[in-house]
Amino acid sequence: MAAALALAGCATAPAVSPQSATAAAPTVPPAMQWLYGSGESAASSLQAYSAFRDHVLAAARARPAQSVVLAPGSTLEAPRFLACGDKPLAVILDVDETAIQNLGYEYDEAYRARSYDEGIWNRWEQTGANAVAPVPGAVDALSAVREAGVTVIFNSNRLTANAAQTQAALEAAGLGPARPGETLWLKGDIAPGSAKDPRRAAVATRFCVIAMAGDQLGDFSDLFNAEDLAVPRRRQAAASTPFAEMWGNGWFMLSNPVYGPSLQGDFDDVFPVDRRWSDQGGN
After folding, report:
1. Which of 32, 188, 197, 211 is nearest to 125 (CA)?
2. 3-state SS of 205-266?
3. Model confidence over 175-193: pLDDT tens digits?
4. What pTM did the predictor assign?
5. What is the mean pLDDT of residues 264-283?
6. DSSP-assigned letter for residue 96
7. 154 secondary structure, DSSP code
8. 276: which DSSP letter?
């Protein structure tokens, strides 16, 4: 813990100019109120991690024949899962808003009323390890998974240049151990870019992956992040056979209404034409 805090630096509030007499006080965006502040969010995460733990413990006893990682060459229409053989068992989890909550960064973003900035996020990775918290349920679930002899592996799009600081954040939150290049895989470790499939494939060559957890569809397959995949088709693919059977049965989704590729779509994407209603009683 001491080493983690030393890497993180001190958790002081950012320097913000005093509010003028006429300036409006900063407000917390509703999505952040829900994810980071509500009892409903805590309950949702606890529920997800309880199901994750129970599935992993049962799968560890049963020794499944197939991994939950898609095989190379899979498509949304024709997915295939890798065989397990006699490989040791593992689980793969995303980091941000799946295992840890980035409270310090999101506080700074909300207080300054700004949007995501790559440079600021990089500084957060480097100095924010003591301003994160574990997602509710994660610590106990991962402890039980490890006690069952299953290796816990993190797959994150944090930068490999900041591996030591990300390791510090996970371990300060009680979610370790995490070892870069072994149980912690980061952007740039296997291939350039943010695609996670190359890292998943590398893990699957050594392990039978019996569960994955994330807060974005890309935490399960990069197929869901194809640039030409329309918003309605993306939703339909996630909610239809064969992927519908994966949720709660090897794939576990954590809620994140704050950021990510789920936050897209215009009226035609989100509201089907045959499910629209307009109030005819007003002016």
Report:
1. 188
2. HHCEEEEEEECCHHHCCHHHHCCCCCHHHHHHHHHCCCHHHHECCCEEECCCCCCCCCCCCC
3. 999 999 999 999 999 989 9
4. 0.90
5. 91
6. B
7. E
8. -
Q: Hey, CA dihedral for 281, 273, 231, 224, is it positive or negative? A: positive
Q: What are phi and psi of 212, to 5 degrees?
A: -135, 150
Model confidence band, residue 283 (pLDDT cutoffs 50, 70, 90)? low
Chain Cα centroid distance, residue 241: 23
Strands 133-134 and 100-101 come out as: antiparallel
Cβ–Cβ < 8 Å for 80, 140:
no
Is the Cβ–Cβ distance between 208 and 56 less than 8 Å? no
pLDDT band at 112 (very low <50, low <70, confident <90, very high): very high
Q: Which pLDDT band, with edges at 50, 70 and 90, does 22 fall under?
A: very low
Assess contact for 203 and 92: CB atoms under 8 A: yes
In this prediction, residue 251 carries a pLDDT of 98
CA distance 110 to 172: 24
- Which bin fits 149, alpha (ψ -120 to 50), beta or left (φ > 0)? left
Residue 2 in 3-state DSSP? helix
Cβ distance 255 to 35 under 8 Å? yes
What residue ranges define each of the domains in the chain, with the CATH number in brackets? 40-256 (3.40.50.1000)
Sequence-distant (6+) residues with CB within 8 A of 246 are 68, 220
Q: Which residues pair with 187 in a beta bridge?
A: 159
| Residue 18 confidence (pLDDT) above 70 | no
